[in-house]
Structure formats: C-alpha cells, structure tokens
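User: I'm writing a tutorial on reading structure tokens. Could you give me a worked example: one chain, its sequence, then its tokens, then a sentence or two explaining what the tokens reveal?
Assistant: Sure. Here is the example chain.
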Amino acid sequence: MRVEDEIRAKLEEAFAPSVLTVLDESEQHRGHAGYQEGGQSHFRVAIRADSFREMNRLARHRAVHSALGPELIGRIHALALEIDG
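And here are its predicted structure tokens:
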C-alpha cells in the first residue's frame, strides 16, 4: 500500500473527517534532503473533523501524529498539516 493511502486510511478511521485531502508533494523536493526516488516522502494533508473543534493547534497536530503512529511517521520525511474543526 502506498504511504498516501495509509495516511488516508488511518485518518479516516480515527477522525471520520468531512474533508480529507492527502497530497504527495515529494517531486517538488527532488534534490532536497529526505527526497526518495519514487516519492512517498513529503506530504500535505488538509483535514476537517468535528473532533478537532475543541482542540488548540498543538493538540490537533498531536492527535494526527498519534493517529498515524510512530511507524508511519518514521517513513515520512515531511508532513505539512492544515487542520480545521
């Protein structure tokens, strides 16, 4: 399974978001640190879910990282998050 699909599946399961976009931006980072041939290293996630409504920015980021888990986070070089409640 592609990393992009793993991210999507874990976030859908954890938050049942009303909006979820997962973009692999790896190609934009070709030649930079962490770039891997074939991509799957740099991602941008936009997510909106009711469960984020009462959380501050730091708590939202921690919740997403927790949902993805250390194994998956360890395979990602860069993760840009846009989180809304």
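What the tokens reveal: The chain has a mean pLDDT of 90. The CA atoms of residues 22 and 45 lie 5 Å apart.
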